Each structure stands twice: as C-alpha cells, then as structure tokens.
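Re-running the complex after MR caught last week's input typo. The corrected sequence lines follow. Everything else is unchanged.
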Amino acid sequence: MTLMGAMRASPPSTIGGASIGLPSAVSEHRTTTRGVPLQLLGISKSFGSVQALRPMTQTIEGGEMLALLGPSGCGKTTTLRIIAGFETPDHGSVVIGTHDVTELPPNKRGLGMVFQSYSLFPHMTVGENVAFGLKMRGVSAAERTTRVREMLALVRLTQHEDRQIHQLSGGQQQRIALARALVTNPSTLLLDEPLGALDKNLRERMQFELREIQHRLGITSILVTHDQEEALTMSNRVAVMSDGQVVQVGRPTDVYERPRNRFVAEFLGTANIVAGTVTAQAAERCWRVALAGEPGASALVQSDTPLAPGNTILLAVRPERIEIGPVVAGTMQALIQDVVFRGSYFAYELCVPGQDAPFFAYSQNRKDIPADRRVGLGWQPDNAIVLEDAP
Amino acid sequence: MTAGIPVVDSDAKARPSRPYRLAGPSWVVPVLLFLGFFFVIPLGANILRSLQTGQAATNGPLFYYIKLLTDAYYGGIIAETLKVAVISTVLCLIVGYPVAYFMVRFAGRWNTVIVFLLIAPLLTSIIMRTFGWRVLLARRGALTTLLFDWGIIPRPINLADEPFAVYLGLVHVLAPFMILSITAVLQKVDVRLEESARVLGASAFGTFFRITLPLSLDGIATGCILVFVVTCGSFLTMLLLGGGKVTTLSLLIYQQFNVAQDVGFAAAMGNLLLIIGLICLALQAKFLRRSGGKS
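Corrected-run output:
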C-alpha cells in the first residue's frame, strides 16, 4: 500500500542528537511508532446549521508537525477533535498509518494529546498522571515505573515524580502534560493550543523545547493554534484555516513570504495591501504595476505566473521588506505619522495618499526618521506578493 | 506663606486606619446571642431534663440512657433509624448522581429549568407532599392501579402503608439536596480531564470511575451528610407513610413527647440521636478530608 510505503520512506533522521542525554530505551521505543502518517480524507462536520468544517483532505507525513492556524471558529479545533475521536465527522474518514480510525472511540486510537489547560488529573501525583495511559493499557507496574522515569527525564522533571499537580508551575505542568501524552508511544501527538496559558517568555522557551522533543522522537504531530508565531516556530508545515476550510498549506517560510490571499497575508504577520494595474512586462517574470491611489507612482513586481497588462491586481508587501528612502518621482510617497521604537527595530506608521489603511514599515536602521517627514517607499520586485483576491 | 501647595507634615499624627471591610467581627454577636439563647441553653436544659425528670429522678440519672442502649426494643429502633438513613442516602445517591451528571454535562441552558424543577417541590409543605403520596399509593390510587395493570404487584394493596412508601417519600424530599451538592462540585470538574483520560486509553466507564467519580467525592460526601442527617431527624414521613411499619428514633421521640408525655425519655432519645448524628458527621468529615483535601 502507498501508506506503508510512506511509512517506510519516512527518514530516520534527526534521532540520536548526540548532545542530548536521552535514555537509550526511549529511542528504542520510538523506532516502532515513529513516522506514522495521518490522513484526513474529505472530513466535514456541521453543528446544526453551522458548517464547522468543510470537506477537508490533508496528509500529514510521518514525523511531521503540521500547524492548523486560524482565528477562533475557523474549524481547526473541530478538525483536532475529529482526529481525537471526540467528534464523528459527517463525511470522510481519518486514517492513521494504514488503519481507518473514523469509527473508533478516542481510547482505541493510540493518540497522545496535550490540552491548553494541560488537564492534569488533580487527584493524582505527577507520577500517577504520567503512568495513567500505561495503566489503562495494562502495562505492568514495574515497567510503568521505568517508563514514567524515562519520560520525566525527557521533560527534565525527574525530581517531581511524587509532587502534587498544584505544586507545579505552569511550565512544569505543561511538560508533565507532554510527558503523559508521550509515555504511551502514541502514533500521533495532538497539541491543542499547548502553550496558550503560559506567559510570553516561558512560551517562547517551551516552543523550542516542544519542537525539539517532537523532532527528536519523530512523532507525527498536529498543532492547533491561533498564534501565528507559535505556528511558524514549531511546525514543518502550516495550514491556514478560515471559515471551516484550509486556505493555504505550506512550509512556514512559503506561507509567510508567499501568502495566497489577503486573509493569509494579514493573519500571518502584518501586510501592506495596495491595488495596482499591470502596465507592461519589464523583464523576465517581472512586471511594472501602476499603483492605485497615487497617479504616476509605479513599482516592479515579480511573479511566476504571467500577468496580463491592463489587469488590476492586489499586492501585499511585508513591513520589513519596505524600504524607506528619499522622495523620488514615480515611486510611492508617504508621510510618516508615527515612529515607535520596538527594541530591535523602528516601526513606522505611514500615511500613503490614496490608501485608506495606514502602511507599516519596519526598519533596522539605528537612527529613526522623525514624524511628519515626507519619504519615498520602495521594495525589491520579489518582495511584492501578488494576491489571488480581486481588488 | 506658601500658597497653593498643601504642606504635608510627615510627623502629623497617623491617619486612623479605616476598616476596608463592610462587616467587622462584632457583626456575628447577634447570631451568637440568638444561638446561645435558643440553641445552646435549650440543649443544655434538654440534657439536664434527660438526667433528672421522670424515672431518672427516682432510678438514677442514667436510667433512660441505660434503658435505650440495653433494651432490645430500643436497640432495634436505633438500628432501624440507621438503616433507614443509610438506605435513603444510598437511594438518593443512586437516583441523584446521574441527574447531577446530566445537568452539568448535557443540560446546557436547560440547567436553570432543572434546578427550578428540583427546588420547586421544596416550596410545598412536606405534609402536602406526603399526603400526595398517600393518594397516589392508596389501594385505588393512580400509581397502585398502574403497577397492578402492568403486573408489577399481584393485587392492589395500600402501598402507602408499606415501608417502601417511606423510602419513596424520603428520596422524593431529599434527592434535590444530593443532586445540588453533587452538581456544585461536578461543575468544577473540567470536561477536558475526561477527554484526556479517554485519549490516554480509558474507556467511558474507566474514565468515570477513575476521574469523574473521585473528583466529585466532595459533592457526594456533602450530599450524603445532608441526606443522612435530615433522614435521621425526620418523623413526618414515617408518621404518615409506611403504616407504622417503619419506626425510627425521631418518630419515637414524637410519640414519647406527645402521646406518652414522658419528657425525660424523649429528651434522652433526642440526645442519643444527636450523638449518633455527630458521630456520623465526624466519620464523614474525616473521609471528606482524606479524599478532597488534595485538590
């Protein structure tokens, strides 16, 4: 079967990162389950008259972490709950490895899951929490002890085995939740806003830690988040969802640098959107576009798909890709409204004639340009993104 | 001198600290006085009465207590009292837990309606409710006829005078207390804990017995204490239902006081009931601390 093929083909990469003192037994457990692909085949779900999820087909490769990113109500949580087995899809099926699990209850799917609230059992110790999944699978007490210790070592909380849950900090609880989810060697790890309850600094640390553990164990993972930074940092691929469907899937850099439409461009980071009319081809894969709103202003735009002269298109430019320079005839001009020092860069709020929304530009220059100055704006042709939306 | 700027003298006498709470400790004084006059003093008087009046005056102060604890008849009454209390507590738990679980997990916006329906019967007098059961359970009552028609009972009898009716009446009155105690605690049990357990491999039953039930023990204990203590003290249900086949200590007190007019004996029984209640409370409090103290 193709699925089996995909399973075998998944490279045994990245394991054995020598620098990490991972108990060898853990990696042995892992090799059996590592890299099982997960397929969503046309799953959809309605709640009453609300279509929470439109038919969705998606393959998550073995060992990959896919982020489902979107605003609340976009269907990402519904997708995760269907995979976990808390919801039954109206249509379609969920295939883990080669098994169709659509009809299986959550306890028969062999998954691991981390919730936003961690959901640690308050009436059990840390050790009992981690051992719970093993106990449910009938693992002997002796082996439970060993594997719980291994897992606690993995999340660096060995000393806390006999603690009560309420004695742990948020970050520690999060790590225990991860240990509890991983101890049963799940085929797939489901992460439901796993870092949402942590403060910013801890969240950034945990992003790297979680990613590192996931990477090391090579476990297929699905991350649900509304935090674009979390999605970009942690996942191999990002699926941006809106209104019950996936709008764009791709590697974080691709989705960020090449958003398909306005929604993706604006949901992932900040985007300056400007309409324009294609005037002529300037070079290979490069067109000149007359910018709307300001007569005489034009810019070069690079595009892989040919643009027809005379067509109006919508462009997006990232704030950090906008170059602020002196006013030059024929380029876009702007009035600096406000300058904000953000530590590693200056953020400019710009008023561009003919544009309703203000533009934003981030500059790494040490010296800022004072407000109320007139400046010219420009960008490299390949930094202008042609969006699919009609202007 | 200096105009406009108010001079702040740091050596000026300290601002009197104003209480920031609405109520101070003195606010409990009226309640303490009330309880002192109408609870503590009568209780003390009752203890004295049980040691000094009637036959206790002639046969020694502990006469009534010795009689209660050694006479087989009264021993049976005490056992019966405990039996009725335990059975009605267990029945309330069995009937109440599923209702509480449903209310918390599935009722959603109907929750308020269900709470109202649970409390509404408590607004009617217990005598009316109990007589209601007498009507339904009479030989030609609606429920008796129905049970006979369905073949559940062999012949139409006056069910109201069977012990079964006592339990029915008690559970009817007391189940809401159990249900509300359990819902209060169950509401704090995050549904995601149950979901976590499911993903970790626990079946629906396993999840209930390992997660939901242990985490709602506090509510169960509270409900059980309430039902147990109230059952121990209720006599109207036993008086009006069960046809005198269920005689408990509180019913006996009522009879001793009103019928036999042996005030000293009634007082002794009241004190014994109080002690039994306190022992049960202490046992349950110990259990409660052990199970619920962790979280």
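None of the earlier attempt is carried over here. Residues 1-33 of chain A have pLDDT under 50 and may be disordered. Chain A has ten helices and 20 strands.
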